[in-house]
Amino acid sequence: MSSAYNRVFAIPNIVECISHSLDFKTITAAARVCRAWHTLWLPIIWHTIDYGQQWQNDFVRALSQHGDLIRIFRCSRDDNIGPLISDPTLNNNDHQCRNLVTLVMPKTTPINQSDQIKLIRQNPGLRDLSLAFRDDPSSDYSDLIHAVGDHGMLRRLAFDDENKTLQVEMLETILQRSSSLRELSFRRIGFFLNHPIGYAYASSSKLLAASKTEEQTASACLSHDVPEQEEKKFLGITSLCMDDVACSQDLILNLASRFPNLEKLSLQLTAELYFSEDFSSRLAQRSPHIKWLNVSKTEDMDDPTIAALIRSFPGLQTLIAGQTGFSEMSLNALIECCPDLEVLDIRETYGLESKSVQRLLQKCRALKSLNAWDTSVNVPKMIMEAYRSQTTAEEDHPVLSPTPSSEIAITGLWACRGLESLTLNFCYDRSSLSDQEQRLIPPASARRYLLEQLSRLTNLRNLSIRTTYYDNCSDDGDDDTIGTMEETNDSEFVIQRIQQDMSLLVIDNLDSIGVLDESVDGDELFNIAYSLSSGLEVLSPLKQLRSLILTGVHHAVGLDEIRWMCDQWPKLNRIEGLYWDEDWDEDRLVLSWLQENRPGLAIEEGDDDEEC
User: Fold this and answer.
1) What is the C-alpha to C-alpha distance for residues 76 and 94, in angstroms, rounded to an integer?
2) What secondary structure letter does DSSP report for 335?
3) Is residue 149 within 8 Å of 181, Cβ to Cβ?
4) In sequence order, what are the beta bridge partners of 575?
5) 280 inside domain
6) Closest Cα partner for 63 from 76, 37, 45, 90?
7) Which residues, in sequence order, are CB contacts of 137 under 8 Å at separation 6+?
8) Three-class SS of residue 246?
């Protein structure tokens, strides 16, 4: 039996599958168990060398034996890369570092420049290179720049960490010589702020300078009569990253004019960048193919500016706009102009209306990921919008096909059936509802509506939700009437439809909670409590679910619920947001059952204020 056992665990495919569920430290320890495991797992151990104090004697000795296994090498800025260089005087160079795909160089100095050149040239398969130069304007790094430009396989080049000595002429040389480069990245660079290229001075480098000053070209840009620049356009560059860079609007436009095939643009954390009203149209004129845009944490990125960018790029597939002024205007622009939108990240943005979020989910069929952490969506308002949109559709198209009897009829179905990741804060805010609306859409009905919508997202891998109940917070009589008379009139026909179709929202297994009962705790009424008694079975179709992140629902999840989740969601490997107290009998039972039956399922405590 022992011999058969050993033979099974020596089969390469089995050992490789085992490695997928182990962390790095465990793999390192297990590789010493037998020769078969050591042989198969050694490439995993040496595949990636990360930042750190790795240049001890033991590492250097091992490096000479296993350097050929390294694919990713990230140096700290003061590391000595000498041990990575092949010595041509020695015969045995088989294990030197020759197969790198990604390399982050230490800071370049006149002393180590020659070693860096050798390392680049001895790795012909290098795809991703990151450089940083010592802050010494008098240093000559032309040899390194030529080596980078002549590398035939390089796809991505990054300049990081305060490259104050980076000259525009260096970029010109690299781009002129390199035909393989596709991505250009600048991070944490402050020199653009005061460099004349930021203001389009005619005396600056031909690479980034405009042919006229900004004042001279402003009117021409608006009329789309800008003459073609004589400088060479670099058609191979499709990605430009300028994260945490201090620059001006002019620089972005000048770069865009030289990279007309840009598909990906990142301006995350960009400082001192202020936008004119025509910035979006001028950017689209220069780089009309942008599909991926990151403007998160960028100064002066208000709602009108983001909306203008969205309307200028109707082919947008990914928008990352967290911690900006993204609001109602931008969201409506996405719904109207971007049918191919797949990824939307608007975490920590405020001012969105629940009805607009409902329209987004109802109309954006291509959406695969939505992260709107800290955005509160009032579910009754979503239901109101769903009925309003259905009524409008019936008025425009009075002949509708009947709903199949096998499906539960539900109004305002979300069209994004391919959604794989959803992060939202769903709430029931009574303060924004009239008394009639509260009677027609009680918390239990709102919860059922939400559960039914989620149950149809059968491709969900990651579900991160927070559910909140807000009671009326004022005794002032004026607060009983919510909203303006105009808003009330607009909602009358919606309320009438809800009166007719309330049977679609009833929760069969929730006793009498379908009618608002002031004696019952509001949290128990609305929270998606993930308890079997509150309709958890509705979510059984989510067979692809891998990660479930909750907030404030720990009171509802017991052993029966955990067993149900493990049975119905076989791929679930992480639950976060529950609070476990080993002094409670129920929690001890849950943890004991998980250790015995699902040891690989990660249970992590959550923080209400943690950004997802």
Assistant:
1) 26
2) H
3) no
4) 548, 603
5) no
6) 45
7) 164, 165
8) strand
Q: What's the CA gap between 526 and 468, in Å, rounded?
A: 7
pLDDT at position 162: 63
The count of other CB atoms within 10 Å of the CB of residue 374 is 18
Number of independent structural domains in the chain: 2
Q: How far is CA 354 from CA 306, 332, 383, 428, 462, in A?
A: 19, 12, 9, 11, 22
- Unique residue bearing structure tokens 């909670």: 513
Beta bridge partners of 473: none
The pLDDT tens digits of the residues spanning 429-445 come to 888 888 888 888 888 88
Residue 530 to residue 561: CA distance in whole angstroms: 7
Distance separating alpha carbons of residues 523 and 528, to the nearest angstrom: 9
pLDDT band of 119, cuts 50, 70, 90: very high
Q: Are strands 72-74 and 128-131 parallel, antiparallel or unpaired?
A: unpaired
Closest CA to 443 of 521, 367, 365: 521
Spatial distance between the Cα atoms of 180 and 201, rounded to a whole number of angstroms: 30
Give residue-wise pLDDT tens across range 512-568.
Answer: 333 333 444 444 456 556 777 777 889 999 999 999 887 655 556 788 888 999 999
Closest CA to 321 of 276, 286, 351: 351
The tokens for 218 are: 């402003």
Q: Which amino acid is at 39?
A: T
The CA distance from 526 to 506, in Å, is 13
Helix (H) or strand (E) holding 266: strand 264-266
Q: Which domain holds residue 14?
A: 1-46
Tokens found for residue 415: 């069209």
Rounded to 5 degrees, φ, ψ at 24 are: -65, -45
Strands (E), 399-499: 421-429, 462-470
Helix (H, G, I), strand (E, B) or coil at 470: strand
Q: Band the pLDDT of 247: cuts 50, 70, 90.
A: confident
Q: Are 491 and 384 in contact (CB under 8 A)?
A: yes
Rounded Cα distance, 461 and 206, in Å: 48
Is residue 194 over pLDDT 50?
A: no
**432: in domain:** yes
Residues near 518 by Cβ (< 8 Å), separated by ≥ 6? none
Mean pLDDT of 26-39: 72
Average pLDDT, the chain: 77
Per DSSP, the residues of 27-55 read: HHHHTTS-HHHHHHHHHHHHSEE-SSS--
Strand 462-470 versus strand 183-189 pairing type: unpaired
d(CA 452, CA 542): 11
Structure tokens at 179: 């035909």
Give the integer Cα–Cα distance in Å for 117 and 30: 37
Asked whether the beta carbons of 501 and 441 are under 8 A apart, the reply is no
Which of 503, 523, 522, 366 is CA-nearest to residue 448?
A: 503
Q: Which two tokens stand for residue 133?
A: 């130069």
Which tens digits make up the pLDDT trace of 288-306?
999 999 999 998 899 999 9
Of 458, 452, 460, whose CA–CA distance to 408 is shortest? 452
Residue 256 CA to residue 264 CA, distance in Å, equals: 11
Q: How is 203-221 classified by DSSP, letter by letter?
A: TS-TTT--SS-HHHHHHHH
433 located within any domain: yes
Structural domain includes residue 158: no
